[in-house]
């Protein structure tokens, strides 16, 4: 059972003769099944192949095939040499991995080849007997030199340098601060604020303020004064209105505003601003101080027992800095003794910086000397290890160089093969000209003349010992660029037939729609050529062209060596059924159908007989058409024939023609009234022909034919 989407597999049972043997093959969709591969096939896709491509010959004489064998043998030798050469020069990646990339001989190992100087390479081999012990000693020496004790010490000294540099900067800043001036400004500012508060309270005691005049209230007044200044600059100030609500001011309000102005212009307020400015300037000196390294260092060593000699001085500087920052933040007095101490430690701090710089320079020099020694020992160790490994790998290295030299010899041999192949090709081309090309050229010209194909030049070329042919019109134009589609098709057919004849046709030849794209003037030429070919071998033609099919059938009217098969969709697509031709009925065939219909009707009754009678009149009508075409008019004009046969015009019996025409025309019209394919008027639909009517009319037509034939023969 197959689902609706599945298709039945393609199968066929093929009966064929191979020589004198008959066989059957069950085909299930396979490709290239012998001996069917011996059949020659021409179809539309083969046109470009035969016209535009450089073609090999399907048939090659035995002598020429030897050239192919020689060429193939030489190419096999060439491939064998190339394979051996590639195998010889295959890179030895395992050998390369044994040596360090920065080693002295790595480039030579990497480019190991026929030109490698083995003697120079051999000089690097370690020849001592105690190589393993020397390697162990050098490894221990390098490990000791690579220890990071000096590096750790140098890193610590570098940190001390940064800390002392930062401490020196802070010490110089603190030593330059005037602590007494800061304390005086701070004390004076406190006194001024006390005096200002007493003045403010007494001055606005009668102003009926909601609360005591404090700093927030004072800021409110100051912002109002700024706003008034802004309005005055914009020429929008009105002394008679409130700055904020814009309501008119009475006398009391104007008096209060005047007191505000007096308060803002008070001398005490000006002094307070001056002292605040002095204190702020003092604080800015400390705001940009960088003390992160100093503080981290002091914090780290504060909890340790083993402290640097200069730790006390660093601690004093950090404490003095912290004290000054807190004094500025909390507005408290500075301990001037701490600042005075900064002058006393300046000299000691400078000595600490000098000592640390000297120690760091000494350690750095020691590290530089150690790096040089380490590099020298590491190189000595690497060279020794390379020498030992080179001794172990020497046999393999010698083998690689030997193989490279052999590969070079094979490469030289490879260069000699292409000229030999070209010589074989030239010799094969010469032999092809003598044995194949000249014969093909003559056959091709003959086929072109038979098919009225364009005459063009055939160039015979040879590549790799093979004979090939190419069709050209001029040196610059290939046939597809100039010729029409029909001309290309007959040209391709001429090439196809010439090659088939060259090898001797021993199997069926198949043409698939050979006249598509051809005008009808060429159909007879193709039909004649196919008919002549059919005299020598079996020919199978697939075509959609009815005229071409009729033309082919007409070529075999005498020999009858032609079978016609019609492909229909009845009962499934592609059903093949035998037929006499493309709807080409003969008088004898139609007469047989009329007689069979009458015999069948005699055995039937009722509606079945009526239906058979109408069918009989249909065959009777067709018989009248064919009788008129083939016997009354002697086939002067026939369906599917493009020409008028004037040679048979004189055979028409003009004297007997009127009587025959009268009878045939009358019975033809009667038949047209009875068949279903012709619509009838309503009164005629009720008139049903009988079997007796059919027998009578058929007898009358046969009598007309007999009389006409007898009188014509006299």
From TrEMBL:
Alphabetical GO biological process terms: DNA synthesis involved in DNA repair; double-strand break repair; SOS response
Domain of life per record: Bacteria
InterPro entries associated with the record: CR006_AAA (IPR026866), P-loop_NTPase (IPR027417)
Keywords per UniProt: DNA damage, SOS response
The UniProt record lists the keyword DNA damage: yes
Stretches assigned to the Protein CR006 P-loop domain: 478-573
Name this protein carries in UniProt: Protein CR006 P-loop domain-containing protein
Taxonomic source organism: Microbacterium endophyticum
Lineage, uppermost ranks: Bacteria, Bacillati, Actinomycetota, Actinomycetes, Micrococcales
């Amino acid at each position: 059972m197959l689902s609706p989407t599945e298709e039945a597999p393609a199968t066929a049972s093929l009966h064929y003769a191979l020589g004198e043997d008959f066989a059957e093959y069950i085909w299930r969709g396979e490709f290239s099944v012998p001996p069917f591969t011996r059949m020659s096939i021409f179809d539309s896709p083969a046109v470009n192949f035969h016209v535009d491509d450089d073609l090999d010959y399907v048939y090659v004489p035995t002598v020429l095939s030897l050239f192919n064998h020689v060429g193939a043998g030489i190419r096999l030798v060439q491939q064998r040499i190339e394979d051996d050469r590639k195998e010889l020069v295959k890179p030895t990646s395992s050998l390369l991995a044994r040596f360090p990339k920065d080693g002295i001989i790595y480039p030579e190992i990497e480019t190991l080849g026929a030109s490698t100087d083995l003697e120079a390479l051999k000089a690097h081999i370690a020849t001592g007997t105690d190589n393993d012990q020397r390697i162990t000693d050098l490894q221990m020496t390098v490990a000791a030199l690579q220890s990071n004790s000096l590096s750790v010490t140098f890193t610590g000294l570098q940190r001390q340098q940064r800390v002392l540099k930062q401490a020196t900067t802070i010490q110089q800043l603190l030593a330059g601060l005037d602590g007494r001036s800061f304390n005086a400004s701070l004390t004076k500012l406190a006194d001024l604020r006390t005096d200002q508060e007493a003045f403010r309270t007494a001055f606005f005691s009668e102003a009926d303020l909601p609360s005591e005049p404090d700093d927030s209230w004072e800021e409110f007044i100051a912002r109002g004064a700024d706003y008034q200044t802004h309005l005055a600059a914009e020429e929008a100030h009105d002394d008679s209105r409130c700055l904020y609500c814009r309501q008119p001011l009475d006398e009391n309000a104007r008096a209060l505003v005047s007191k505000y102005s007096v308060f803002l212009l008070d001398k005490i307020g000006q002094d307070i601003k001056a002292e605040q400015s002095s204190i702020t300037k003092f604080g800015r000196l400390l705001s940009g101080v960088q003390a992160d390294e100093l503080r981290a260092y002091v914090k780290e060593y504060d909890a340790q027992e083993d402290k640097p000699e200069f730790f006390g001085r660093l601690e004093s500087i950090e404490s003095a800095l912290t004290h000054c920052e807190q004094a500025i933040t909390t507005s408290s007095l500075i301990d001037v003794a701490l600042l005075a101490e900064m002058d006393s430690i300046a000299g000691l701090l400078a000595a600490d910086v000098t000592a640390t710089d000297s120690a760091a320079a000494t350690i750095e020099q020691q590290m530089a000397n150690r790096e040089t020694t380490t590099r020298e020992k590491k190189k000595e160790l690497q060279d020794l290890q390379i020498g030992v490994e080179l001794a172990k790998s020497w046999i393999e290295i010698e083998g690689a160089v030997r193989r490279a030299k052999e590969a070079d010899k094979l490469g030289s041999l490879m260069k000699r093969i292409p000229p030999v192949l070209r010589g074989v090709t030239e010799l094969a081309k010469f032999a092809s000209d003598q044995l194949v090309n000249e014969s093909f050229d003559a056959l091709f010209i003959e086929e072109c003349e038979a098919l009225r194909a364009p005459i063009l030049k055939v160039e015979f070329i040879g590549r790799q010992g093979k004979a090939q042919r190419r069709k050209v019109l001029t040196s610059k134009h290939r046939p597809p660029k100039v010729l029409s589609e029909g001309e290309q098709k007959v040209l391709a057919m001429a090439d196809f037939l010439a090659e088939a004849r060259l090898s001797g046709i021993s199997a069926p030849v198949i043409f698939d729609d050979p006249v598509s794209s051809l005008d009808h003037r060429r159909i007879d030429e193709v039909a004649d050529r196919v008919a002549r070919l059919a005299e020598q071998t079996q020919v199978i033609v697939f075509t959609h062209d009815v005229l071409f099919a009729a033309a082919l059938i007409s070529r075999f009217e005498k020999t009858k060596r032609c079978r016609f098969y019609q492909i229909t969709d009845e009962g499934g697509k592609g059903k093949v059924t035998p037929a006499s031709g493309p709807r080409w009925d003969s008088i004898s065939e139609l007469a047989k159908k009329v007689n069979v219909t009458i015999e069948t009707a005699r055995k039937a009754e009722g509606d079945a007989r009526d239906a058979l009678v109408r069918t009989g009149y249909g065959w009777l009508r067709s018989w009248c058409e064919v009788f008129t075409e083939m016997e009354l008019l002697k086939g002067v004009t026939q369906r599917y024939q493009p020409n008028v046969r004037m040679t048979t015009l004189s055979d028409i019996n003009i004297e007997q023609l009127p009587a025959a025409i009268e009878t045939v025309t009358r019975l033809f019209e009667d038949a047209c009234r009875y068949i279903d394919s012709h619509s009838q008027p309503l009164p005629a639909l009720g008139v049903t022909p009988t079997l007796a009517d059919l027998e009578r009319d058929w007898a009358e037509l046969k009598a007309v034919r007999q009389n006409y034939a007898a009188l014509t023969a006299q």
